[in-house]
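Journal club side-thread
Mid-discussion, someone asked how the predicted structure for our own chain would compare to the paper's figures. Pasting it here so we can look after the session.
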Amino acid sequence: MRKSVIAALLALGALAAAPAHADSDWRVKAGLLSLDGDSSAAKNAGIVYAMDFLGILGAEFEANTSIADGEVGAVDYSVLQGGAYATLTTPGPIYFKAKAGLVYNDLDVGGFSDNDTSEAFGVGVGFTFVEIEYTRSSINDVDVDFISASFGF
């Protein structure tokens, strides 16, 4: 609970500190989403709206969904995610990023559905128009790992 409150305060603080002219961009995202103990990862795709305030501080809002199911045991699964994050990004054409926030995971495993909102943390590296990122969240104590590439436009 304490981590969730800290992540929410970070995200809200980033939004409150935003000047009216914050830089922003849209990105498309694709990657592999894996549950703890799965035998094959789901392939997810989505969209990201990123805002940059004060040079290194920012916020991201993203949504992604499974376009190809993963497999846990002999059962297929898919995951829909929506997240809000506060970000810290180094300046320069090649940059490193850390993010923390909240993510909503909606899991469908063989017709059974479950959802949960949890804290999420991630790291990434990017340059010009592409960014590689690793994000970890959870759904009811099951780790959810997402390795992705996003492309700006």
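Post-session note: The CA atoms of residues 30 and 45 lie 4 Å apart.
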